[in-house]
Amino acid sequence: MQAPEDHSSGQERRRRLAGARLYLVCGARPGGRPLRQVLAAAIAGGVEVFQLREKGLSPQELLPKAMEAVEICRQLGALCIVNDWPQVALESRADGIHVGQEDMAPAEVARIVGPDMLIGLSTHAPAEIDAASRAPVDYIGVGPVHETPTKLGRPAVGAELVDYAAAHAQRPFFAIGGIDAGNLDAVLAAGARRVCVLRAIADAADPEAAARELRRQIDAHPLR
Questions:
Q1: Averaged pLDDT for residues 143-160
Q2: pTM of the predicted model, to two decimals?
């Protein structure tokens, strides 16, 4: 009898990441609603990766929320990523950890979490995209494409950086930053084939319908 597939292995996580097109980032109460309500709808609409982002919480406060997010994602078939805190990602048994340029270096993150956990890195400039190809990261975020209140003080990079990533990135990349159904076409035209959104789904009255519309546009541009 063939052994069941291990969905916690690094190989399986990277296989799933390679095929992912739509990534959602939000807090534990998106739009003031229970996380399960919004996340279940978003995954039904086509979200394949979810990142729990709660910048104002300590690791101790974040852990139970991360455990809830991991449980929901496991049940519904999405990858679950924790923002900023490698130890919380480990303790919650998340699929990955995402860090920014000012956070812990990817090499140090990899030392903490080991080889089976996905590592994501935010990038905001061509040099950072190039450096990511030499770092122990599995994917990068490229942006913010547009100004966004979730990245106060971070200037928009526009579609030009997406175009650069499409030509030069050595890791799967997700365009991010103020992207919604109304401006997604320009991001796809610049070469993005994977997209990360926040408010476009998390604040939508119908998260499932919002995710489906984003997927409709994204899926018209097959992965290369």
A1: 78
A2: 0.94
